[in-house]
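User: Please fill in residues for this 234-position structure.
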C-alpha cells in the first residue's frame, strides 16, 4: 500500500463501530492513515495484501476471530507489529494472544491516551529499524541479528521472531552479560513503565526461549538472575 509523504498506515479491524470511530478520530488527528473494516474475513484479506506499519486487531469479529487472523499474518509477515484489542482481560487470554504472535494486548475499556501511547511507541520503533544500515548486524554467542532485514539465526539455524521478540532479543544482544529487570525491559522495548504490563515481559521471555533455546526449561542464552531480572549470556 502506497504511503503519502511517509504517512504511517494502520489497519484497524474492529466490529464495535463506536470504538472504531473514536480510534479513527484520534489517530487521524495525529495524521496517521487509517483503514477500517468491521469484518474478520475482509480484515484478514487486507492484512495479508497490504503493507502496514501497524495492525490494530479486535479478538471477537464476525466470521473469523482475531487470533486466527494474527496467526495467518504471522506466517506471512513476522515483522508487522500487531496490537490485539479485547474485552477479555483474563491473564490466560492475554498470554494466548501473545503466544500466537501479537506484540501487545490492550483490554476494553481502555483510555484513548493509553492506546495512542502504545501506537506511538510501536511506530517509533518502526522508524528506528528503518534507519538502520547493513553494518548494524549484531552477533553474540552464536546469535546473529540483522535489524535491516529482520532476520535471526542461532548457530546457523534461521529463527522466525515477531517484531517484539526481535526487539527484545536485539536489546539483550547489544549488551551481552548485562542484567535487565522487567521494568527496564518494559521501558526500553515496549516504551512504557506501566507496572500493569510487567507480566507481558515474562510472556515474551518465555516465547523467545521457546524459539531460540534447545531446551527452554534449561536456557543457555537468556538466563534468569533470580530476584534481579534477565540477561543474555556473553
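Assistant: Residues filled in for all 234 positions:
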Amino acid at each position: 500500500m502506497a504511503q503519502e509523504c511517509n504517512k504511517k498506515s494502520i489497519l484497524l479491524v474492529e466490529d464495535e463501530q463506536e470504538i472504531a470511530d473514536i480510534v479513527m478520530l484520534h489517530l487521524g488527528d495525529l495524521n496517521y492513515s487509517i483503514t477500517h473494516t468491521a469484518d474478520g474475513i475482509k480484515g484478514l484479506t487486507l492484512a495479508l495484501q497490504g503493507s502496514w506499519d501497524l495492525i490494530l486487531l479486535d479478538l471477537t469479529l464476525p466470521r473469523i476471530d482475531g487470533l486466527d487472523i494474527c496467526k495467518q499474518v504471522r506466517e506471512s509477515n513476522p515483522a508487522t507489529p500487531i496490537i490485539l484489542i479485547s474485552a477479555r482481560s483474563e491473564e490466560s487470554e492475554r498470554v494466548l494472544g501473545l503466544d500466537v504472535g501479537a506484540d501487545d494486548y490492550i483490554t476494553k475499556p481502555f483510555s484513548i491516551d493509553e492506546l495512542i501511547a502504545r501506537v506511538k511507541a510501536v511506530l517509533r520503533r518502526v522508524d528506528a529499524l528503518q534507519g538502520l544500515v547493513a553494518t548494524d548486524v549484531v552477533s553474540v554467542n552464536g546469535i546473529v541479528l540483522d535489524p535491516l532485514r529482520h532476520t535471526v539465526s542461532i548457530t546457523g539455524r534461521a529463527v522466525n521472531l515477531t517484531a517484539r521478540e526481535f526487539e527484545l532479543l536485539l536489546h539483550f544482544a547489544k549488551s551481552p552479560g548485562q542484567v535487565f529487570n522487567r521494568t527496564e525491559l518494559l521501558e526500553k522495548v515496549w516504551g512504557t513503565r506501566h507496572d500493569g504490563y510487567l507480566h507481558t515481559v515474562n510472556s515474551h521471555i518465555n516465547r523467545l526461549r521457546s524459539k531460540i533455546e534447545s531446551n527452554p526449561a534449561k536456557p543457555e542464552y537468556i538466563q534468569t538472575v533470580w530476584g534481579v531480572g534477565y540477561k543474555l549470556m556473553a
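For context: The first strand starts at residue 9 and ends at 13.
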